[in-house]
Amino acid sequence: MFIEPGTRHTKDRGTGWIEVISGSMFSGKTEELIRRLNRARIANLNVEIFKPGIDVRYDEEDIVSHNKNSIRSTPVNMAEEILLYSGSCDVVGIDEAQFFDDALVDVVNKLADAGKRVILAGLDMDSNGVPFGPMPHLMAVAEYVTKVHAICVNCGEIAHYSFRKSASESQILLGEHDVYEARCRSCYLEGQKIQKNE
Ligand SMILES: Nc1ncnc2c1ncn2[C@@H]1O[C@H](COP(=O)(O)OP(=O)(O)O)[C@@H](O)[C@H]1O
Ligand SMILES: Cc1cn([C@H]2C[C@H](O)[C@@H](COP(=O)(O)O)O2)c(=O)[nH]c1=O
Ligand SMILES: [Zn+2]
């Protein structure tokens, strides 16, 4: 369980920090993001939350987890917009960070340099097992990285792959259980082998 590092950075030195929550689909990234943001609100901190405008699976504005926890957010199309909307807040939350471009790295560094706690959640890999968008870079610059895991729907082991049930070329394909399954390494490789032979 992640324990907040406290306010040492901001109080003593005026700088904040970056936290990344990453893993496959269904691994609990959004739940964990919502948990940390709710706790920040309980601490009377001013919180702003963002998601990429393309993620409209459940709701235009809310961030919604697979088990239907939700929190209000501001959809943005460009990472730089986050700087405009987070002027006076203490904590910035960002979901589906994999859908932003590399400009997000500069944006979150600026926010942390300016004293804000920045918490990002995003997929580490796409369905081909390739690192997704700015996530590798974000994990490199973050002070804290939490890797969360789903349960393999095939065998019950720990899953860290998002298996796309129908082969499709594009990296971005929004979806849920209709399109994706959480799978362990062994079941992911098995699924890919079957798809290649079809
Ligand atoms: N295969 C799975 N493994 C673990 N949790 C799952 C699985 N399928 C559905 N869930 C549900 O998804 C919830 C996590 O949802 P969420 O936080 O939105 O995940 P993520 O943002 O990582 O996709 C779990 O608490 C559980 O209720
Ligand atoms: C693996 C993978 C996923 N996506 C999409 C599918 C969902 O809309 C989001 C991930 O949501 P979650 O909160 O992590 O469950 O990303 C995609 O576009 N491409 C992929 O390869
Ligand atoms: Zn498995």
Automatic annotation (TrEMBL):
Catalytic site positions: E96
Residues holding substrate: I172, L173, L174, G175, Y180
Claim: Hydrolase is one of the keywords in the record: no
Protein name: Thymidine kinase
NCBIfam families found in the cross-reference section: PRK04296.1-1
Entries under Gene3D superfamilies matching the protein: 3.30.60.20, P-loop containing nucleotide triphosphate hydrolases
Enzyme class: transferase
Top-level lineage group: Bacteria
A GO-annotated cellular component: cytosol
Assembly and oligomerization: Homotetramer.
PROSITE patterns: TK_CELLULAR_TYPE (PS00603)
Gene Ontology MF terms in the entry: ATP binding; thymidine kinase activity; zinc ion binding
Residues the entry annotates as binding ATP: G23, S24, M25, F26, S27, G28, K29, T30, D95, E96, A97, Q98
Gene that encodes the chain: tdk
InterPro entries: P-loop_NTPase, Thymidine_kinase, Thymidine_kinase_CS
GO terms under biological process: DNA biosynthetic process; thymidine metabolic process
Native source organism of the sequence: Leadbetterella byssophila (strain DSM 17132 / JCM 16389 / KACC 11308 / NBRC 106382 / 4M15)
Lineage, broadest ranks: Bacteria, Pseudomonadati, Bacteroidota, Cytophagia, Cytophagales
Keywords attached to this entry: ATP-binding, Cytoplasm, DNA synthesis, Kinase, Metal-binding, Nucleotide-binding, Transferase, Zinc
Binding site for Zn(2+): C152, C155, C184, C187
Family recorded in the similarity comment: Belongs to the thymidine kinase family.
Catalytic activity, reaction form: thymidine + ATP = dTMP + ADP + H(+)
EC number, UniProt record: 2.7.1.21
Any Pfam family the entry gives: TK
Location(s) in or outside the cell: Cytoplasm
